[in-house]
Write a structure and sequence with these properties.
alpha/beta
Amino acid sequence: MTGRVRVVWTPELLGYDFGPGHPMAPLRLDLTVRLARAFGLLDLPGVEVVGAEPATDAQLETAHEAAYVAAVRRASDGGAGDPARGIGTEDDPVFPLMHEAAARIVAGSREAALAVWRGEVEHAVNLTGGMHHAMPGAAAGFCVYNDAAVAIRALLDAGAERVAYVDVDAHHGDGVQRAFWDDPRVLTVSVHESGATLFPGTGYPDETGGPGAPGTAVNVALPSHTGDAAWLRAVDAVVPAVVRAFAPQVLVTQHGCDAHVEDPIANLDVSVDAERLVSSWLHDLAHEVADGRWLALGGGGYAVVDVVPRAWTHLLGIAVHRPLDPATRLPEVWREQVVELYGRPGPGSMSDGADLAWAPWSAGFDPADDVDRAVRATRTATFPALGLDPLHD
C-alpha cells in the first residue's frame, strides 16, 4: 500500500443541482470543501485531489438499463422528463446537463475504487457520491445514477472476489442492495431509520439476499428518534461482525449524515460526534479486514451549514489520517464565508458536545427496548447464514 489518499473534487461536481429549494443543495459540498481546505486537510503530503470526466454510457450500463441512460440523456438535452423512470419528478426534477453531472459523480467513484484496488492509493473519498437510491431503470430519492453500484461492479470486473458495502445514511441503501441482491460476492449492510416511517419504505431485517446469496443483505431498521447511545450500539452490534465474517478485499462505505438530529427530512437523533466516531470505526475496519482498501462516499445530509460540512470534514480528516479533535474551533475564515454565502453564522466547533457513552451488545439484550429488538431481529435473520451466533457473537 502506498499510504496515499485520493479525494475526488472539482467545482464541476457542483453542477449536480436540482434547483432552488431542493434539499440536495450543492452549497453543502462547497462549504465542506472550503472547511476541509481551511483546515489544510487537502494540502497534506500524500493527498491527491482529482477531478472526474463523465462516465461513459458503457460504464453506466454496468448498473443501469441502456433505455434509462438514453432517457436521462434526452431529458438532459432539453427533452421531456420521464416520470415513469423517475425523471422529472418532485424528488428528481430535470436540470440542464443532468446526465453529464450525474455521470461525472459516477466516474469519480468508479475511478477512485479502481485506484484503491490497484494499490495506487490506500483510501479514496468521493463526497459527491453515495447516490444509493438510483435503480437500474429509474431515478429515485435525489439519485440519478448509482455511483456505488457502478464502482462495485468495476471492482468485481477488475478481479475483486468479495466487496463489502456499509451504508449509515438515515435512508435505506435500497439501490445498492437491489444491484447485488443475488450476488454472493457483495455484502450490503444498511443501518437506517425504519421504512415504516421513512423513504424508501424498505430495508427490513427479513431482506437478507437472494437465493444465490443468502445472508449477504443485512438491514438494521431503527425506530424514529434513535439517539447516539442506541445508534452506536446498533452499529457496533451488527456491522463489525458481519464485515469480519465476510472478509472483504475492499470496503465501500456510504456516509450520509442525515441521521443527525437537525436534519430536516429524517427522524433520527444522532450527533455529529457519533457520526465522526462511526466513520473512524469504518476506517479502522478497512485496515483490519481489507488491508486498508477503503472507498468512502457521501450521500444524504440536508442540514446544509450546521451538519454536512462538519460531518464530512471529520470523514476527510479520518481518511487522510489527520483526524480533527471534536473540540476544534471552526476557522474564522470559514465562518466568514458561511455568512457571505448563506447569510447567517455557522457552528462554532467541530462538536455538538455530545456524550457518547453507550453499552455494547455484550452488556445484555433488553427486550423492552425498541432498538434492541430491531438489532436482535437483524442478527437473528442474517447472522446464521454468515456463520455467526445471533445471541453471542
